[in-house]
Amino acid sequence: DAGITQSPRHKVTETGTPVTLRCHQTENHRYMYWYRQDPGHGLRLIHYSYGVKDTDKGEVSDGYSVSRSKTEDFLLTLESATSSQTSVYFCAISPPGLNTEAFFGQGTRLTVV
Amino acid sequence: KNEVEQSPQNLTAQEGEFITINCSYSVGISALHWLQQHPGGGIVSLFMLSSGKKKHGRLIATINIQEKHSSLHITASHPRDSAVYICAAKKGDTSYDKVIFGPGTSLSVIP
Fold it and tell me: Looking at CA atoms only, how far is residue B94 from chain A in angstroms?
């Protein structure tokens, strides 16, 4: 298994509070991604990173920010959580190269009440 | 119409049956990724293929680029194969950001 660890695995938070999810990898892969998974939708990309301090937006980036200060860590922050951000969040990593696959973490279940 | 579609949406099979899950896409791709997700669990990579066929144990994945179609086959299905199977169409050559995920096929294998 690829070395990806997400923390926390479960979190319940109140509307309006800030929340940070962490993704840690031991593979030294260049690319890291944050997705959310919701019923009725396929996985949707929130933000991704192509190197330290290099990040870009995905299709559902509103309300989220990310940071990558080290190769191994990619943080996802909800500045002011809303109920619509209740979801399961997955981190993924992939190495550079032609048609390389991505490896996913175990997911973080976030509930905003 | 979604760019990546899967059929069937839900599938129930008896243990031992041969199972086929289909994925069709309407965009140009560089590769097709099959993923498995167990209930409450993480997402596991099964196959990444850009042509032909790949086999791993009881799982076989095929792709027809001209017809924009891929299939995942499970031979001699087992209850532990019960999971959601997701296909993902990879549009970019290198990074994984230009990927469109299908809605998933939920498979239940009954003993």
Answer: 5
